[in-house]
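QA checklist item 7 of 12: single-chain prediction sanity check.
[x] sequence parsed
[x] length recorded as 306
[x] structure emitted
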Amino acid sequence: MSGKSAGAVRTGSSESSDDQRAAAAGQQLDNAGFSPAEYVDRLFPDDAALEGVDVAAANIGHRLQAVQQEIRRQLRAQSDGQQQQTQGIEATKAAISELYTRISEMKGKAQTSERMVSDITQDIKALDVGKRNLTQTTGTMRRLQLLVGAVDQLRQLREQGRFGEAARLLPAIAGLREGFSEYHGVRQIARLDEAAQVQQRRLGGLAQQVIQRGFDAQGRLVGDAEQMRAACGCCTADEQARVTDAYCEQQLRAYAAIFPLGDDESQLEHVSRRYAWLRRILRNYAEEHAAAFPAGWRMDEELSRR
């Protein structure tokens, strides 16, 4: 009994020792400088160690299986990693492609919006130009209507002899005509402008006749002084000059007959008589004729200058 126990103990201790040697030797398999001969010598250093050859073989078999399982696991892990990496790359490519698509769409929408804004801006500019043209055309048509009405009204006032109202209408007609100075190439406007000039000439001629007929052959005032004064407002500068010349010649006719140039009566010794005549003429103008002429015509100065 004791002998069997001792043998069992030796066998157990031997197996334990063999396992330890096998485990120690198994660790050497991972060494880069692994030598099979040295490995076997270390595993079975003596003949007694050969008793654990079965255990060592079993351990090596387990070790081989473990290594093979680890290799398969690593291969599966590597394959899974490559697959995941491939899937990640594909996902990244898809995300980049989607991002590029969205950026392209946004760029296209931005270009479309820019074109729309440009088109709207052009439309607004066109509408603004059209509005200004319409406003200008409307204003031109209104002024044209005013000019037509003013010319016709001037004709009626001339025919009725209403010189005061006609004189106030003349500046308005002149302003309207000036506004159409750029449109004389238009036949209708040119005809209207000519009609306005004709009416003004006829009015001025009639006013000149009324003023001159307001004095008789002896130079006495026989006409309506108020009407004659109003008629003066319808005269142009040339017509005013003609009226002034005719009036001064008529009023100074007797003076020129008495004191002709080059005659003895025109000498210096007759200055007092000439001055008396001139005073009488100026007094007659101030008392009788001044109401028939505007103060701006300075008719008394013209009499003294002649």
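[x] summary fact logged: The CA atoms of residues 139 and 145 lie 10 Å apart.
[ ] second reviewer sign-off
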